[in-house]
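Retro notes, item 3 of 5
We never archived the inputs for the calcium ion complex last cycle. Fixing that now. Sequence and ligand:
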Amino acid sequence: MHKVIFDTDPGIDDAMALLFLERHPDIELLGITSVFGNASADTTTRNAQFLKREFGIKAPVARGADVTFDPGRPMASWPTFVHGVNGLGDIDVPETIEDVPLDPRPAFQFIIDTVREHPGEVEIVAVGRMTNLAMALARDPEIAGLVKQVVVMGGAFDTNGNVTPAAEANIHGDPEAADVVFTAPWKVVIIGLDVTLQTVMTRTMMKDLALRGGPAVELLARISDPYIDFYSQQVEEGMVVHDSCACAYVVAPELFGLRSGSVRVVCGGVADGLTLQKPAGRAFGPSPWDDKTEQKVAMTIEAEKVVDLIAATLAP
Ligand code: BDR
Ligand code: CA
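Structure as it came back at the time:
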């Protein structure tokens, strides 16, 4: 059984990923930690509480960071044109979800405590800014040796970003935090735009899933409608299921081809948030990539099989 902490900024594709984690029989969801990103931390935390209730999830929600790891960094604006003003496609969501209390701890502390309760077992799936993880490492560096793996949706390696030509949203929103997470002595697998952009759930598939997956998937289909409109301008008619790809990796790593090598994030300047890997075994001059942990970056994906796995898990 995979014991997973889901670090997320819900977010429409985050909502799908959350339901995937909840419904996959080989996954035990230990907790949901929120972070700013697709909307403010107030909104993403409220959305996590809302989704917990609507999806019938038992795992607790812990509120996470509302500002970047480096307090001097100016905050980017929310991508309301992607996820809506409320992060969930602007469907009606109550302002507060009083019947779903938050865990009393901040997200970084929840992560530390949960990792220490299950040494060597916890897999963190991080699909928003890396701020909570960087804070947890800063507070308790020893957790790096106690986590089984960190699976990240973020970055763009041999392709362009989606916020700037250089940078993908989750990394661009807090590059310093991502650099801390990628260079820490733990195992990180990065599922970036190189592969996620190939995973498209069409509107027809969503409609069909909604008929078979019950009220939770109906809700997903409703919030996804404007997201599908947004992505249909860029890819085929449908939505890119970025965050579910990271969840799919946990249970089906064989569907991904990985490249090894240390990863750094450009912090500042014209390429702010650019992710760059030094492929293992290639000779370079001395560089800031030297002596950093070799991480894995997904370069290939069996996209159709990943989309099928997501669909079969949402509506078994
Ligand atoms: C990432 O950014 C967010 O908009 C999505 O939820 C996903 O995590 C894709 O770049
Ligand atoms: Ca996300």
